[in-house]
Design goal:
Residues 4-78 form the Lipoyl-binding domain. This is Dihydrolipoyl dehydrogenase. Belongs to the class-I pyridine nucleotide-disulfide oxidoreductase family. It contains 14 helices and 29 strands. α4 (171-189) packs across α5 (204-228). α2 (137-148) links the parallel β9 (126-133) and β10 (153-157). The strands form 7 sheets. Strands 9-10-11-12-13 form a 5-stranded mixed barrel. It has a 5-stranded parallel β-sheet with strand order 15-22-16-17-18. The longest helix is centred in the middle third of the chain and has 25 residues, at 204-228. The chain is globular and about 75 Å long. With 601 residues, it is α/β, with parallel strands linked by helices. It binds flavin-adenine dinucleotide. Residues 133-139, 156-159, 164-166, 170-171, 174, 237-238, 273-276, 293, 314, 405, 408-409, 441-443, 448-451, 453, 481 line the site of flavin-adenine dinucleotide (FAD). Flavin-adenine dinucleotide binds at residues 133-139, 156-159, 164-166, 170-171, 174, 237-238, 273-276, 293, 314, 405, 408-409, 441-443, 448-451, 453, 481.
């Protein structure tokens, strides 16, 4: 007998109001269990809602653009007799991509049992207690912690330098260039205060060399620390042979060119930290003028006109760099706002400060056609803010998100479950469904941030060493290192509204901060969000220079369960931008003497 079931949005962690960007099915469609039904997009990535069973779609209850949270009914499904599922399972299918911050990770799905040890019976070149696959921030932190805890550790990495995306083509090079951009920007404002600099001339070769030097210092430092800990590095492309063996196709040269040699490593425990890669839009042709973030960081040219596809953090950071170097920028974003996930008031401030960079910010618009010509790249748009004519660009940056590398490591041979999108689900101890194999970093889910991966790495290594560690962080802060910076942590007003949580909001405008006025950034603000009942801080946002350096204090306050009095009565140094956090808590308490008298509560 068939059964009509309501398919609901699964546990997607702290995300409460996530827009639907695509619906893959229509009434009458036949689906298999685990087929993607629709796609949600949080602040930094997309995630699918899978079908809990095989069957026929009866009725759609949502449309593209609707915002949904856990438990929202998205469609009804007539489950096929043989495949029908319990109502409970239908109501809470496992997310295809563990979208929640690791604070609430997807349970480790266990469709496949681990293969018996030794299903591989060939020769073994290296034996170790702990194998770490990938040497990004997750991988090297896991390897170093494992070695510190006494395990004989081997780390496998295909590239010649350690540090993964973050150190080589992500966080660090982008920040080296953003620093330069910020100095250029700041210098340009100095004429207003009587100190004029000439228009900067940019030597791209030297700037590139500076960025490479920054990367070299850090990656070289990592190699030294690996040596000091006796972590063996095997350079090559790793693929599991079974649950206890990894084959490494050795690589050589400056990239990941195969040398033709292979080595087999036998391990007792493993941590998968193979990260993610940029999503490639299928309609973008191969042309050196169309790049992802890695290509943009190579700084091959400064274009006159640049299109950034995707208004998330990575796209906007690179837009800031290229704009400071002299490019005019257009941004196209399918959603209704830039930097989704960030506090909307903070984004408004950022937008106002950045108007000068952009010719067009095309929200609710998509790129639908791209033609490469010798004199430029012609782009057609569709949507609410699409220009009528094709636009011509010298450079296109595609920054539409990153996809995990779960399907590229032979995980199935180890019995490790990988979702359709390539994520590896883990539990709160970072274990996959195969108990001696752990997963960390971008490959296990959102948010794809280095500091989340490092935290998970420590948990995995400690659990593997027999300690009772858990990933039980309440919050994970996010920062857009744009100009000005936008930083946020914990609950936002949109989250609270979506979940019905009762909150109070306090905001301290930097127009009342002596340091902000002195520094020429009195447009910024600090906002704290308090639980209405307990007065404990549950969220916060800062927009302005150094916001990213300051958000850690709010993160600590949330983790420690601080209330407004704890924060307000902590003496902050004066005059600093950081004292705005204490003052915001005083605003909540009605005790702030740096603002006009406040209404009595
Ligand atoms: P990765 O850094 O992706 O490392 C995975 C490693 O595994 C890679 O070195 C890869 O070569 C290796 N590998 C993969 N498969 C194999 C295999 N089969 N065999 C051998 N080796 C393999 N995050 C922040 O927190 N702050 C930022 O400011 C920030 N800025 C960013 C800017 C940009 C432009 C980008 C692209 C990302 C940025 N991120 C930032 C995200 C951050 O870089 C990632 O979250 C982080 O690098 C993930 O770490 P990881 O260890 O999970 O994986």
């Amino acid at each position: 007998m068939s059964q009509i079931i309501e398919v609901k949005v699964p546990d997607i962690g702290d995300f409460k109001d996530v827009p639907i960007i695509e619906i893959a099915v229509k009434p009458g469609d036949t689906v298999k269990a685990e087929d993607a039904l629709l796609t949600l997009e949080s602040d930094k990535a997309t995630m699918d809602v899978p079908s809990p069973a095989a069957g026929v779609v009866k009725e759609l209850k949502v449309k593209v653009g609707d915002r949904v949270g856990e438990g929202a009914v998205v469609l009804t499904l007539e489950a096929a007799a043989a495949a029908s599922v319990s109502q409970a399972a239908a109501e809470a299918p496992k997310p295809a991509a563990p979208a929640a911050p690791a604070a609430a990770p997807a349970p480790a799905a266990a469709p496949a049992a681990p293969l018996p040890a030794g299903s591989y019976s060939g020769a073994v070149d290296i034996e170790c207690e702990m194998l770490v696959l990938g040497a990004g921030p997750g991988g090297y932190s896991a390897a170093f912690r494992s070695a510190d805890l006494g395990m004989k550790t081997v780390m496998v990495e295909r590239y010649p330098t350690l540090g993964g995306v973050c150190l080589n083509v992500g966080c660090i090079p982008s920040k080296a260039l953003l620093h330069v951009a910020n100095v250029i920007e700041e210098a340009s404002h100095f004429a207003d205060v009587g100190v004029a600099f000439d228009k900067p001339t940019v030597d791209l070769n030297r700037l590139r060399a500076h960025k490479e030097k920054v990367i070299g210092k850090l990656t070289g430092g990592l190699a030294g620390m690996a040596k000091a800990r006796k972590v063996d590095i095997v350079r090559g492309y790793g693929q599991f042979l079974d649950a206890y063996h990894l084959e490494v196709a050795l690589t050589t040269g400056s990239g990941s060119e195969l040398s033709g040699e292979k080595k087999v490593i036998r391990f007792q425990k493993a941590i998968i930290a193979a990260g993610s890669q940029a999503v490639k839009l299928p309609f973008l042709p191969d042309d050196p003028r169309i790049v992802d973030s890695t290509g943009a960081l190579e700084l091959r040219q400064v274009p006159k006109r640049m299109l950034v596809i995707g208004g998330g953090i990575i796209g906007l950071e690179m837009a800031t760099v290229y704009s400071a170097l002299g490019a005019r920028i257009d941004v196209v974003e399918a959603l209704e706002g830039l930097m989704t996930g960030a506090d909307r008031d903070a984004v408004k401030v950022w937008e106002k400060q950045n108007l000068h960079r952009f010719d067009k910010v095309m929200l609710k618009t998509r790129t639908v056609g791209v033609t490469c010509r010798p004199d430029g790249i012609l782009v057609k748009f569709e949507g609410e803010n699409a220009p009528a004519d094709e636009q011509k660009y010298d450079l296109i940056l595609s920054a539409v998100g990153r996809s995990p590398n779960g399907k590229k490591i032979g995980a199935e041979k180890a019995g490790v479950h990988v979702t359709d999108r390539g994520f590896i689900p883990v539990d709160k101890q970072q274990r996959t469904n195969v108990p001696h194999i752990f997963g960390i970093g971008d490959i296990v889910g959102q948010p794809m941030l280095a500091h989340k991966g490092v935290h998970e790495a420590h948990v995995a290594a400690e659990v593997a060493a027999g300690q009772k560690s858990f990933f039980d962080a309440t919050i994970i802060p996010s920062v857009a290192y744009t100009e000005p910076e936008v930083a946020w942590v914990g609950v936002t007003e949109i989250d609270a509204k979506a979940s019905g949580r009762k909150i109070n909001v306090a905001k301290f405008p930097w127009a009342a901060s002596g340091r902000a006025i002195a520094n020429g950034c009195d447009y910024g603000f600090t906002k704290l969000i308090f639980d209405e009942e307990t007065h404990r801080v549950v969220g916060g946002s800062i927009v302005g220079p150094n916001a990213g350096d300051m958000i850690g204090e709010i993160a600590l306050a949330i983790e420690m369960g601080c209330d407004a009095v704890d924060i307000g009565k902590t003496i902050h140094p004066h005059p600093t931008l950081g004292e705005s956090i204490g003052m915001t808590a005083e605003v909540f308490e009605g005790t702030c003497t740096d603002l006009p008298p406040m209404k009595k509560k």
